[in-house]
Specification:
CATH architecture of the largest domain: 3-Layer(aba) Sandwich
Distance between the termini: 60 Å
Helix content: 40-55%
CATH class of the largest domain: Alpha Beta
Amino acid sequence: MNDRLTEFFEQNPPVARKIVGKALDAARAREAARKAREIVRKGAMGSSMLPGKLADCQERDPSLSEIYIVEGDSAGGSAKQGRDRKNQAILPLKGKILNVEKARFDKMLGHSEIKSLITALGTGIGKDDFDITKLRYHKIILMTDADVDGSHIRTLLLTFFYRQMPELVERGHVYIAQPPLFKVKRGKKEEYIKDEGSMIRYLMRQATSDMNVKPVGAKDAIEGRELAKSLEKMVDFKRYCERATRRLSGDGNLLDVLLEVLAGQKGLLRKEGLTLRKVFQDGDLMQKVDNAINKAGYETELTPDEEHGLWEIETMTRAGVNIAIDWNFASYVEFQKAVELFKSLEENLSGPFVSGENGMSEEVPTREALLEKVLTAAKKDLTIQRYKGLGEMNPEQLWETTMNPDKRTLLEVRIDDAVETDEIFTVLMGDAVEPRRKFIEDNALDVRNLDV
């Protein structure tokens, strides 16, 4: 056997190199695991061996202790000053940790930030060495900035926990902090707002409390909470229209035509019992859609999709891009939501309006102008601060908004579908480029927050 194997290796050097490489990788992994065990063992002997950047808590009962994994030294400094030292530990991480989906085990364990994380948690790592009973904190809270970099760092940390310490996720030990995105101040009163949607609702409530709006020709005015909810629909409608327009290669005029013919005052969907899918199944109704698009200055061709019993309209956008308005397009949630909201707004918030406030009244021509008027009124005498990062908050603000157990909001990380979760991590964080490219191409139009 030895002679034949030696002969085979001499005749097939690439195979021999691969086998030797595997052996070297295994040896590196064993040595790294041994060092990791040594680090954790020494850490367990006393706090002096814990990472230097870790600000540990006084509590020694893991079930009462929590650790915040914080992005950057600046936010880490604020968190250390603002925390409750009794049971809150802080571990700042410098920059983005290694993507463990791609890295060798020994390279991962040689990464300083990952080494600090493993040592701080105390459980060890790897199938043979991980011990959940040695976990030093039963709440592991990821606290990163509310921007793209923060999301990336959070994703890298979640990849680490899911691949290397999945039991922490399965047992509900991993959480995501929810720092506010805005601080609003009027006079001496301050409030913190979590995100864009909450900010819009806050502004609407502020502006509509003393305002009433009456559509011209209508009997009753719209005011207070009812007016605020209608204007929130306007904001949602604009957001869905922006996303639907991307699927029409940026041709907003074409979307306007579709919305009007489908859900306007004389739209097809106002017929009793008619749904969007039924329109695409009916050749006569689709002919009316085709005529409306053609009348708006587009060259169109209505063709049947006999295989699925549907119809589609082929046309060219103002930018010269050929597109198909078919059931595939109409089934996108953003288009369906835009149609639904447009129909509702046409029924309940159709201008022009007479707006009244503080005994004064004025005519507002459109609901878009009404929304602008309300937002302008809401921001009057209001100071709005948008936080770019956690480091912009002083310790008291960070405690009050994000770390105080009585007021904070935490999201628990759970695995609802193990197969889908595994697939997503493999596609987005793995070595294979083609599946990731396809995922990006399929979902690029759904992106709402992108730094370029």
